[in-house]
Amino acid sequence: MEYIRRELERKFLKASQAFKAVMVVGARQVGKSTMLKQLAKDQKRTCVTMDDTQLRQFAQTDPKLFLQTYQPPILIDEVQKAPELFERIKIICDESEERGLFWLTGSQSKKLMKKAGDSLAGRLCVLKMYSLSQRELLGIYPDEEIDFSFPVWATRKQMFPANNVLDTFERIWRGGMPDVQPLNQEMMQEYFNSYIETYLMRDAVDDNGITDTEGFRKFLRACAAFAGQLLNYNDLAVSAGVTGATAKEWVKVLQSMGVITLLEPYASNELKRLIKTPKLYFCDTGLCAYLSSWTSRDVLMNGAASGHYYENYVVGEFIRNYAYGKNKVNMNFYRDRNMKEIDLIIESDGILHPIEIKKGSSPERKLINAFSVLKETEKQTGNGGIVCMTDTLLPIDEKNFFIPSNII
Asked: What is the pLDDT of residue 272?
């Protein structure tokens, strides 16, 4: 399969010039190793993987000799399997002023982040990678950062093909795992089944000490049923046949593994009666669709959960956009006990950009009326709009637009 250029490449190479060590983390099989090996092609950089049993044992038993044998600049793949290397990496970093000495990849885990943070504080830049974005799949890489202005949306609109519901739900159903892209329906099912058994269940047991594997499988499926919705620990616990405390712990495990992400509710002293429950999203909609037994694009698109999957997809594209972009933002949602709701609030430079997400191609303009609740905050409300299946970028009022979801 031909290499798909990753949006994270730009930020990674800049970080490599600024830091002595850079580590890319993320869920299993999202393409971390592939990207770094591609970037290392034009460099005199040693590449080793801790998946190799002999190399791993060498690194674990004599990290000093290992890094004398395989000297930096070096790419160490799956570094979480040999955490003994971190202390030695720290010493080498402290003895040299050179940047980009160590390129590391690690499957996301609490243990890895703690060990790396303890040993390499101030020396290490950690970047997160997700499965393929719609931009990467299309091979379209906009230069301009999203600022929610009409000119930027209009520029992006010219770069992308027409917004098409069949193409969109094909991407949602298939997800963004690189190895899934060329597979047919039958082999996709086999891939995800193998992915869960080979990676997720093994990591749950080995890294997180989970012994109730059947309960954890049920819990995974229950989480998929709640994608794009408020997180209800009690319902999750009942579905998996575990206690509420176990459900809370397992949600943290799935977050640490890069399987799910939680969107926290917007908090403000000026706004009362806010709901404090987060919303649950899957980092890859293809895995989510498999867990919920949606066996084809059309069944998913016409099913009762299609709106939740569409929302999950749009939120996921925004998350990827800002993870790889230049500007850091805060992302939240709004819901109060009066049932007023804003699907997404993106705060950039202290300005709130409210977003509604609707699967239809011509949603009602009055959906933006909910944005008025933000006037009660001390922060400025900027441009926003309704992300939907429209193919036309249209103003709703002077600040808000109908935004085609395929141009995010």
From this structure: 66
- 3-class secondary-structure state, position 77: strand
**Residue 61, Cβ density class (10 Å: 0-12 exposed, 13-18 middle, ≥19 buried):** exposed
Segment (H or E) for 15? helix 8-18
Residue 204 DSSP symbol: H
Name the one residue in this structure whose structure tokens are 């009690």.
234
Count of Cβ atoms closer than 10 Å to residue 256 Cβ: 18
Each residue of 233-246: pLDDT tens digit? 999 999 889 999 99
State the DSSP string of 78-147: TGGG-TTHHHHHHHHHHH---SS-EEEEEE--HHHHHHHHHHHTTTEEEEE--SPPHHHHHT----SPP-
Element housing 380 (H / E): strand 380-381
Say if residues 384 and 368 touch (Cβ distance below 8 Å). yes
User: What global pTM score does this model have?
Assistant: 0.95
- Tell me the CATH number of domain 8-128, given options 3.10.20.340, 1.10.260.40, 3.40.1080.10, 3.40.50.300: 3.40.50.300
Mean pLDDT (whole number) for 325-335: 94
Beta-sheet strands, E only, within 12-62: 21-26, 46-49
- CATH 3.40.50.300 residue ranges in the chain? 8-128
First to last CA, the chain: 26
Q: Kindly state the tokens that stand for 63.
A: 């990290």
For every residue of 270-307, which 3-state class applies, written as one string?
CCCCECCCCEEEECCHHHHHHHCCCCCHHHHHCCCCHH
Confidence of residue 207 (pLDDT cuts 50, 70, 90): confident
Torsion sign (Cα): 298, 302, 304, 305: positive
CB 71 within 8 A of CB 48: no
**Token code pair at residue 15:** 């970080």
Confidence check: pLDDT of 221 > 70: yes
Integer Cα distance of 352 and 354 in angstroms: 6
